[in-house]
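Hello support,

Our group uses your service weekly, and this is the first time we've seen a run hang past the timeout. The protein is GIY-YIG domain-containing protein. I'm not sure whether the cause is the sequence or the server load. Input pasted verbatim:
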Amino acid sequence: MVGNYFVYILRCGDGSLYTGSTNDIEKRLAAHASGKGAKYTRGRGPLAVVYTEAFKTKSEALKVENQIKALNRGEKMALIERKKRDEPEANG
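Update from on-call engineer: The timeout came from a worker crash unrelated to the input. Re-ran successfully.
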């Protein structure tokens, strides 16, 4: 689904996962990489995008972001693996 809002998961250099949402994914990822993104990701580089999903509306994206944030690490890893299996070219 192509949309204007995105939910993403980053794998931080320490192995932890960060979930966020944005309407400009390239700009947001650049902010994280430069240390100007979320406080959580500062000093935890290098960062790797391991999951992205597009939504038509901000409310849809925020709903899914909160659902993902409520998952435990194992559930998040399973979500990432499912996405890789379903769309191998879309995620690294």
